[in-house]
Write a structure and sequence with these properties.
Helix content: 40-55%
Distance between the termini: 85 Å
Shape: extended
Radius of gyration: 35 Å
Number of helices: 8
Oligomer: single chain
Bound molecules: zinc ion
Amino acid sequence: MRLAGGRNLFNRDPSKSVIQKNLSLVAYLPNKRTIIEWSYNMFSHNQQTISDLRDDLDQTRQVVISLMSQEIREILRSYTRCESRRDADCWRYDVVGEIIQRAEILPEEISHFSERAYCPLCGEGSSWQDDHGFSIPEGLRRHLLGNRCSIFRVALVLARQTWNKNFHAKEEGEARAAHTQKVKRKKSETLYRTTRCGPAELIDEGIGAATARKGCDLPWAENRLLHLGFEIVNDGKVKSYIYELDDLIVYADPRVEGEIKFAVYLKPASNRSRNGLRQASTVSWKSFHEYSQLQSTTGSTSRIPAARSGS
Ligand SMILES: [Zn+2]
């Protein structure tokens, strides 16, 4: 077989063909174990490099803060005195207030309409060409809290690193305790299945920041659902509020104070889903009430208008 230039694939060299030469190179290729060792060493080296760079960056951040005046330094490093996440949430607003108090107000001939000052941390002022400094307090507050001050950003990073280190173990312990408590409650308390396929939940589970309905208030909500034609289904300690129509099945969720939510599912006709039902939408109490009244008076099977929440 001839190659370009008249080379012979099998016998270009009088002593060895191209294939023979390539086969001899295979003998020098690293074996699988060598490749794994090489990859591991590269990975370890890269990890060490990243760790060193992080240390350098942290030291640089500390240096940046140490270049401030002693008074500003102490203010910026006060994050070490935060004892909880709540303290930490308030910290930056308190610190910004103290920094604004220490801003040097520019002379009146410069600040015509309101007091103005340059940032006591980074020395920057407004980006407008004819303006000097920031308006006090709002302009400087926006500069600091709006993530535009390079020095304050550095202080925030150091603060967050310290808080994460200090609070992490405590937060993990609290999360574990909360999980244990939830498991314990699920074994003894009534659970509510409020959707077709979702898990049965505690009265205050999965409702976000909303307030769970009090035990004495729940019978009132259940009576309203019974009045609308819902059936209260008890399966052991799992309770569901279900209303079936010709082409729909509705699950009610009365657990949140001041509202009752509905999950509406279409019963399959030709368009069957894997679960046999397909969720249509969440509807408000008002929408559902109007629909159920329409059903009872006309026997209509028109769809319930969708809405996100209701009471
Ligand atoms: Zn600044």
